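Need residues for this backbone.
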């Protein structure tokens, strides 16, 4: 790629990031804006940054195994999950989604032909499980908590952009929610720093296990104790 092509790609990428970031700031409930923001970021990623991101993802044995085997959580079937006891991770996950009228189908089923594509697919597929494990809700405060947790555990620009959208949205449209959102952001960051890494974990074997047991294994305190 020539210098002019690289510069043009960078300008297009920056414009797309700013547009999607602004749209997300205005309406934090637009999940598609988060996915579009990730797509725009790919235009700004340099080969050096790709190597740094993958090195971070593969900095643990679990992450290296994930990059090597590319295990996928895939589309979990709600009927199978809801049949599990509610005390299990899978059962809690299904009830968490159903209570909030969410569905695994809302998450893009991405291909994973390369390491970067696999990493993004992994984060997309496991995001809602991170909500269940950490106890954060899907409202802006809860999303701030999970994004801060992710940022504490990985080298990623997307959670930082989402967090900045949440913070600016708070200033412009929801100042009365500042305490709840900042408390969640702070808790998520500290939780992510203290917990065992979620990055690259193959969660399928954990679905049938008690949620409290899985939380203990990953050093996640019960949300009731927070």
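Answer:
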């Amino acid at each position: 790629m020539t210098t002019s092509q690289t510069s043009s790609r960078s300008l297009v990428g920056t414009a797309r990031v700013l547009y999607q970031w602004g749209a997300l700031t205005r309406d934090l409930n637009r999940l598609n804006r988060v996915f579009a923001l990730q797509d725009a970021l790919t235009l700004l990623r340099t080969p050096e940054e790709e190597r740094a991101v993958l090195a971070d993802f593969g900095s643990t044995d679990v992450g290296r195994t994930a990059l090597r085997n590319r295990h996928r959580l895939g589309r979990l079937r709600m009927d199978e999950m809801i049949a599990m006891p509610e005390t299990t991770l899978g059962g809690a996950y299904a009830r968490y989604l159903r209570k909030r009228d969410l569905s695994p189908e809302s998450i893009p089923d991405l291909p994973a032909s390369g390491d970067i594509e696999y990493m993004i697919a992994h984060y997309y597929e496991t995001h809602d499980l991170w909500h269940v494990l950490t106890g954060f809700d899907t409202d802006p405060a809860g999303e701030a908590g999970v994004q801060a947790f992710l940022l504490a555990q990985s080298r990623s620009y997307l959670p930082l952009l989402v967090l900045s959208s949440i913070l600016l949205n708070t200033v412009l449209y929801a100042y009365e929610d500042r305490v709840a959102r900042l408390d969640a952001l702070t808790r998520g960051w500290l939780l992510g720093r203290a917990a065992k890494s979620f990055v690259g974990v193959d969660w399928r074997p954990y679905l049938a296990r008690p949620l409290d047991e899985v939380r203990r294994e990953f050093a996640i305190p019960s949300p009731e104790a927070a």
